[in-house]
Write a structure and sequence with these properties.
alpha+beta, about 350 residues, 3-stranded antiparallel sheet
């Protein structure tokens, strides 16, 4: 028997060179209209490596996922992995949920509308505006059905805890969305206690908005981390939805949401968040991340992207987003800042998480 060979340091993976859009595998793809699909909608096809974890020059880990880029005409220009299978976009669905609230009749604008589409950091100005909106519509904070939580932003969380504050529903990153949902229900005379039921009139409107924007049927309905109904669409559909918001006509619900988010990005995310940086420093860009490492972006000329890291690793979001933006021709300091993900050893930088496509 030959002697075993010692392990060799891994080299940067390039096994997933970008295929043409027509080369993406669609084998065994779950039907997008089959509500009784298997519990897991993940494709059996192994997705490509989108990011590598490099420590001291050694590749110690990899994050796989799927990514799609649409051209200005909406056609798929790049597809990595399975981009037509349904995924839960998580908070990347929030622009559609905010548009649903507008379609239902709530007249929101400016910072309030941006907060309705937010995964806010829980900074004081976020919490203050949520409370102000609750007061404006005569709503008790106890009506919020999002769970009590700490600020999403780590720095703000430390400050919050140091003040002696406890987890609170207003502090939860989805509280702006929930406040807007309650407000329109109160205005329309719809039940407040069941506003998160998928069959509630508001949620049925939101369901329709998601399908209209994505250009495809919702494949499954689940429950998001905040308790709200969560609609599954493909990455192509998600990118198409963001593109449709940027391209929508002035005065439409979709365009109003896009305009509010782009004008007030700090209310969509926070002072130290990639969505804020991108919308502030690349004018006209619409950007929204979601839990489990989902990201969608649309540029003002109609080009768009969406991706999901399969293992849900948020640490890979920045490097993958920065690389995808570079492929779209977006550059500058903001892209470098978003893509920077250093690894530390002994308190000093010894490596990085980097894109691998």
């Amino acid at each position: 028997m030959p002697a075993p060979q010692p392990p060799q340091p891994s080299q940067p993976s390039r096994e997933n060179q970008p295929p043409r859009a027509d080369q993406s595998s669609r084998a065994d793809q779950p039907s997008q209209t089959d509500r009784s699909a298997p519990t897991s909608a993940l494709s059996p096809v192994v997705p490509p490596v989108l990011a590598e974890v490099v420590r001291s020059g050694f590749v110690e880990g990899r994050h796989r996922g799927s990514l799609v880029v649409l051209g200005a005409d909406g056609a798929v220009e790049l597809a990595l992995g399975e981009v037509t299978a349904p995924v839960f976009p998580r908070s990347s669905n929030k622009p559609m949920q905010a548009a649903g609230v507008l379609r239902a009749g709530l007249d929101l604008a400016g910072e309030r509308l941006a907060l309705a589409a937010a995964s806010h950091s829980g900074e004081p100005f976020h919490r203050d505006l949520v409370r102000k909106m609750l007061d404006e519509y005569g709503l008790d904070p106890a009506l919020l059905q999002c769970p009590p939580d700490l600020p999403l932003d780590a720095e703000e969380r430390d400050t919050y805890l140091a003040s002696g504050a406890a987890p609170d529903r207003v502090t939860m990153n989805c509280s702006g969305k929930h406040t807007a949902m309650l407000a329109v229900c109160a205005q329309r005379g719809w039940p407040l206690e069941t506003y998160l039921d998928p069959e509630h009139p508001l949620q049925r409107i939101i369901h329709k908005v998601v399908e209209d924007a994505a250009g495809e049927p919702v494949a499954a309905v689940g429950t998001d981390g905040c308790g709200a109904p969560l609609m599954a669409v493909s990455l192509v559909g998600l990118a198409r939805a963001f593109r449709s918001f940027v391209a929508a006509g002035p005065g439409t619900a979709e365009r109003r949401v896009a305009d509010a988010m782009r004008a007030h990005p700090e209310y969509v995310a926070g002072s130290r968040r990639a969505d804020t940086w991108l919308m502030r420093e690349v004018p006209g860009t619409l950007s929204k991340m979601g839990a489990e490492a989902v990201q969608a972006v649309a540029l003002p000329d109609g080009r768009a992207l969406a991706f999901k890291i399969e293992d849900g690793a948020g640490r890979a979001l920045g490097p993958v987003l920065a690389r995808a933006l570079t492929l779209l021709g977006v550059d500058g300091p903001v892209v470098d800042r978003i893509g920077r993900a250093p690894l530390l050893g002994g308190g000093r930088e010894v490596g990085e998480i980097r894109a691998a496509f």
